[in-house]
Specification:
The complex is a heterodimer of chains A (about 150) and B (about 180). Chain A has seven helices and no strands. With about 150 residues, chain A is mostly helical. Chain A has one domain. Chain A is globular and about 45 Å long. With about 180 residues, chain B is of the alpha/beta class. Chain B has two domains: about 30 residues; about 130 residues, Oxidized Rhodanese, domain 1, CATH 3.40.250.10. In chain B, about 45% of the residues lie in helices and about 15% in strands. In chain B, the strands form two sheets. Chain B has a six-stranded mixed sheet with strand order 1-2-7-6-3-5. In chain B, strands 4-8 form a two-stranded antiparallel ribbon. In chain B, α7 links the parallel β6 and β7. The N and C termini of chain B lie far apart (about 65 Å). Classes of the chains: A mainly alpha (about 150), B alpha/beta (about 180).
């Protein structure tokens, strides 16, 4: 079986949907509970004007949660994959931009894991590689997933 | 059978989902006790906020500040008096990059966004009963409040928030230092 067939198979897409979906649901938790703390991190990215930072700090975690849930449930999987990919691309650009300017700050990516395992997640080259890896995992969902609200059997 | 959908439809549904989820997030934020307060971020004028915030105390936040304890908010003149007497430490809650650019002379950096990773070093050199005057960019920024509440929750007892923050200090032409100076 070729790599293309494996990547496009329904089993692969299903596994990726569930894994990525659960990952984003877990990532959203602490940010939804405490958006003020997350707004400090969003401000560090220096991508948005001051007035938009509170909105981004509220909306981004909810996008992670709802898109994650819909990916797991296979509701509009392609559209949700696209939204998550756009968010990841924006964050990757922000991280790259700041690292090039020598600014290192908290990533604001997986804060729950910091609480569980004591990870200190600051932006770095490995953060960029992780985001690119996640984008790579989302791509098969975007290309080969379904985009319906309810699938009739 | 696999359904085929054009990119246009995928993008359209993605935009609709983003708008719907944004609305949901904003509604939840309005009900969240730890939510972002848009009134002090974009509503009233700078002067109105200054009038109401100065002279007040910060109320406790669940999980950070023990109930019943409050953190005093001080004015520019009070902050300057502490500075001139050499009392306590000024703590800069803005990003480290902003701190290194310019900060109140002799201030320490304890960025709100890097609090967890920097706290250990901070607590090694600063005693729990030391007077700490915490500031961030201006009266509308929340970072000094975040840092103050976290420090109070970790046992620091002598905390004050300089609400006017960096902008007021700079406008008053009081002493600053940093690589942009």
């Amino acid at each position: 079986m070729s790599i293309g067939k494996i990547v496009s198979s329904s089993i692969t897409v299903t596994v990726l949907r569930v894994v990525i979906g659960v990952l984003f649901i877990l990532a959203s938790y602490s940010k939804i509970i405490n958006p003020v703390q997350f707004s400090a991190v969003v401000a560090e990215y220096q991508l948005l004007p001051e007035s938009l930072i509170p909105f981004a700090a509220i909306i981004l975690p909810w996008l992670e949660l709802m898109c994650g849930m819909m990916l797991v449930l296979n509701v509009f999987a392609q559209s949700n994959a696209l939204v998550m990919m756009v968010v990841l691309v924006i964050f990757t650009i922000g991280i790259t931009n700041n690292l090039l300017r020598g600014i290192v700050h908290d990533c604001g990516c997986f804060e729950l894991f910091e609480g569980w395992f004591g990870f200190q997640d600051e932006i770095s080259v490995s953060t960029i590689l992780r985001d690119l890896f996640l984008i790579g995992l989302i791509l098969p969902i975007l290309l080969y997933g379904s985009n319906v609200f309810f699938r009739r059997r | 059978m696999k359904e085929k959908h054009g990119l246009g439809k995928i993008i359209f549904i993605g935009i609709i989902l983003t708008i719907a989820v944004s609305g949901l997030g904003l509604v939840f934020n309005s009900m969240n006790p730890n939510g972002i307060d848009f009134v002090s971020s974009s509503g009233p004028s700078y002067a109105e906020i200054a009038e109401t915030k100065q002279g007040q105390s910060l109320e406790g936040s669940p999980g950070d500040v023990p109930a019943g304890e409050e953190i005093e908010v001080i004015t520019l003149l009070e902050a300057k008096a502490f500075f001139e007497r050499g009392e306590g430490f000024f703590v800069d809650a803005r990003s480290e990059y902003k701190y290194y650019e310019l900060h109140i002379s002799n201030a320490l950096s304890l960025s709100a966004s890097k609090f967890d990773s920097r706290y250990e070093d901070f607590s090694d050199v600063i005693a729990k009963d030391a007077l700490l005057i915490i500031y961030c960019h201006s009266i509308t920024c929340p970072y000094s409040d975040i840092v103050a509440r976290k420090l109070r929750g970790l046992g620091y007892t002598n905390l004050k928030v300089f609400s006017g923050g960096w902008v007021e200090w700079l406008q008053a032409k009081y002493p600053v230092q940093g690589f942009k100076r």
